[in-house]
């Protein structure tokens, strides 16, 4: 039985934004809540949010949404790899694969998340990455048999190095959805994208 969990990375310090971007308003919700709900609406029931900067406020928000959180003590290094590793260690034994998504990607579409999961359940691929106009984005899916390869990586290696090392295994899913490339780093990004 296939069970896909999700790790949502929300540990950044939001230095370029100047305030915690996960907590910024996005319609009736916050940026992070919007990401969580998109994943939940796409059928993902087991979600772990990795927190770091502003973690107390972020964790309060997360728990109101019935998802689990884990605090990345290394968050100040600003490395995505340590957050992914934190999230992987918190996943349940039942999980067959995990989606790795960004907490500052509220434009991500439910249909894209569903398509990635559907591709995993239909094909034998261990690694599924969405692609828009030949550029890969988030969320990407990694099957359990590859988790150790991620857990064993050390800085300065990054998730990009992991994907490059396993390039021949990647099943790309072409999506007509530029939101897989869009995250919110600066106040300008936020003002341009907010609903």
Structural commentary:
The protein is an alpha/beta fold. It has one domain (4-193): Spore Coat Polysaccharide Biosynthesis Protein SpsA, Chain A, CATH 3.90.550. It has seven helices and ten strands. Strands 1, 4, 5, 6, 7, 8, 9 and 10 form an eight-stranded mixed sheet that branches. Strand 7 and strand 8 (135-136) form a beta hairpin. 41% of the residues are buried.
End-to-end Cα distance: 38 Å
The percent of residues in helical segments reads 25-40%
Task: Give the C-level CATH assignment.
Answer: Alpha Beta
Along the chain, the helix and strand elements come as: EEEHEHEHEHEEEHHEH
Globular, elongated, flat, extended or rod-shaped: what is the shape? globular
Beta-strand fraction estimate: 15-25%
Overall structural class, as computed from helix and strand content, comes to alpha/beta
CATH superfamily: Spore Coat Polysaccharide Biosynthesis Protein SpsA, Chain A
The major beta sheet can be summarized as: 8 strands, mixed
Look at the structure and give the mean pLDDT. 93
Q: Under CATH, the topology is which?
A: Spore Coat Polysaccharide Biosynthesis Protein SpsA, Chain A
The value of Rg in angstroms is 15 Å
**What is the architecture at the second tier of CATH?**
Alpha-Beta Complex
Our count of helices gives 7
- The total count of strands amounts to 10
Uncertain residue ranges: none
Structural domains: how many: 1
